[in-house]
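Hello Y.,

Per our agreement to keep a running log of every chain we model this quarter, I'm adding this entry. I've kept the format consistent with earlier entries: sequence first, then predicted structure.
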Amino acid sequence: MQGQPHLREQLDSITGQTHSSWTIWVSDDGSTDGTHDILAEYSKSYGTSKFSVRPGPAQGYVKNFLSLVCNPKITADYYAYSDQDDIWEPAKLTRALDWLQTVPAHQPALYCGRTYNVNEDNQFLSLSPLFAKRPSFANALVQSIAGGNTMVFNHAACALLRAAGADVQVASHDWWTYLVVSGCGGRVFYDPQPLVRYRQHSGNLIGTSHSWAARKARFGMVLKGRFREWSDMHATALQRLHHHLAPHTARQLHAFNQARANGLWARLAGVKRCGVYRQTRLGNLGLIAATLLKKI
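Predicted structure for the entry above:
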């Protein structure tokens, strides 16, 4: 997707943060509109030490994000993902760092949260769901609870992502980050206060995960085997970090993978026993259906 229409608004929301100690790294993954000119303007205004642009790998959005987070030339105490057209509330970084700085630097930590869903003109549409159950590896195995545009994480978390590598095959960079931090002894905080305005385009309204269209689409993906494909993908990817997994999450991953391979009754019992869960009642009904159909 071309970034020109909303890029200035997004960049201004980052440069206008109440936390002013930031550096922006942009990976331009092949835009052909006026994106280059806008980026050159901001880079000239702020200087390359504050605003750096590099070409992306041209392999899709997941590889684009991972190419940045796994770049050894990018070093910081904390990192945040940002899409090209979303808008950060002014206190986003301040609020995220207020929590992250309570976690010891050696322990992986991930801040994430809700969003305001807005239309192309930045007019409010809805709030993303408020998830009440605690974030955990048991949840991350079957659900991604927050968009990457809400995520801020520390260097210990970044080091794990780099240990896995930019070429890892995963469903999305944000789900992968949740899996890695929760699986490797880290802490995850899901903020009920929205601090990102997530722009909904006509082509991505299905992205509002609480809509009936989105629920229908997700169930369709379950029936087509996409959920099982993602589970297989993540199980393979997590093998790259097997030495970093906490003992209890390593056991949970093994039990989950074993349960998925079993026959119907053993599969149902095994999935229940390993403790995986989704955040809502409807989501857990979908999890049961996927287990019954061997689509998990």
